[in-house]
Design a protein that fits this description.
mainly alpha; three-stranded antiparallel sheet; 9 strands
Length: 370
């Protein structure tokens, strides 16, 4: 057991991954037609409202992680089958989520096998996302239209940096970096908190006003958006070495941890008054981002971020948040939220919550066993 990873954290991560193997294994065996999005009454919605189609990469991502954890060929075979079914989405112009769709699925497959043909859908997806550049090249617009910039896109823009590096395409890199700088300037505030959405003039790139689709108010701090910010900026720094992106990741992480306090899981919006339901998926996203950030900074600061991630993971492995064994709920991580304003997936399991929980747990467990 690594000295950097407490025994209790290693045990918690193993519990998470074992539960994931049980839940995901049952799902793909018994309901092969289902692509997890959010649950309703503990069962993954089958044909329910989705608002936008952004989650299909998370199941193959979970399958690749579980293949690595268990060594079972079954998970690999299912991951490949799901990747193949997803390939046509590489050129889908309707979404801004090509990182979620292809880095978690096809890029993992390419990294496992090294076959150059497996990388091609990833590169095509990156070019499709880069084509969303608006505002005189200053940002990548959201699926809602040319005027809209989401903090969520920080978790997707990494695929453009990846492709730029692989293809030695400086134009792609400039497009991605301009987006990140615009996001940092207008969606990340001085105290490190984030806006969910910015409204811009798509012709000039002028920032017009804050907005939100899922938070309490346009100027409030939606917790999952804050987790996207800290994880996304850290990822971009890892891919580029840009010091401004590291500073943004630190600011976002510090605000998240300050607002989180002693809890493992945040409320849906950090600023909303009253009794606000929790969003466990935001905690899972943040845990992975904190582990990533810990590896990018000095030892003392890294230890603080790493320990915070361990505390969150241990909390998420408890019976309060981790789904019990058995057929229901069908997901792994309970008490998440998709879209509270639309009444979708409130106090339920979510595909991204499960994926980022498994991803963070596997990263921590590998470190513990090294």
């Amino acid at each position: 057991m690594s000295e950097r990873v407490p025994t209790s954290t290693g045990r918690a991560c193993r519990t998470i991954l074992e539960r994931g193997a049980e839940k995901v294994g049952r799902l793909v065996r018994e309901a092969p037609e289902v692509w997890p999005f959010y649950t309703q009454g503990g069962r993954w919605v089958r044909g329910g409202e989705t608002w936008t189609e952004w989650c299909q990469g998370f199941l193959p991502g979970q399958l690749w992680i579980l293949h690595d954890f268990t060594g079972e060929a079954f998970f690999r075979e299912e991951a490949i089958r799901r990747c193949r079914a997803l390939e046509e989405r590489a050129e889908d112009p309707r979404v801004h989520d090509h990182g979620f769709l292809f880095r978690s699925s096809w890029l993992r497959w390419f990294q496992h096998d090294g076959d150059p043909s497996l990388e091609e859908p990833v590169l095509r997806a990156a070019r499709t996302l880069a084509a969303r550049s608006r505002g005189g090249g200053r940002y990548l617009c959201s699926f809602l239209g040319d005027h809209s910039l989401f903090i969520d896109i920080m978790m997707n823009v990494g695929i453009v940096f990846y492709a730029a590096g692989r293809m030695e395409d400086e134009d792609l890199r400039r497009t991605a970096l301009a987006h990140c700088r615009t996001t940092r300037r207008y969606l990340l505030r001085g105290d490190g908190s984030s806006l969910h959405e910015g409204i811009f003039d798509p012709a000039t790139g002028e920032f017009l006003r804050p907005s939100t689709q899922q938070g309490w108010r346009p100027d409030s701090c939606w917790a999952r958006g804050q987790a996207w910010a800290l994880h996304g900026f850290a990822d971009v720094h890892r891919l580029t070495g840009d010091p401004d992106m590291l500073a943004a990741a630190r600011d976002a992480a510090d605000h998240f941890l300050l607002a989180l306090g002693g809890r493992a899981v945040p409320p849906d919006d950090f600023d909303e008054p009253g009794r606000v339901p929790s969003d466990s998926s935001a905690a899972a996203v943040a845990a992975g981002g904190l582990l990533l950030l810990a590896d990018l900074v000095g030892q003392e600061e890294g230890g603080r971020y790493r320990n915070a991630a361990f505390r969150i993971l241990e909390g998420l492995a408890s019976s309060e948040w981790l789904a019990p064994p058995g057929p229901e709920p069908e997901g792994i991580l309970q008490h998440g939220i998709y879209h509270r304003r639309k009444g979708l997936g409130v106090d339920e399991c979510t595909a991204w919550g499960d994926y980022f929980l498994l991803d963070a747990a596997w990263r921590a467990l590998k470190e513990a066993d090294s």
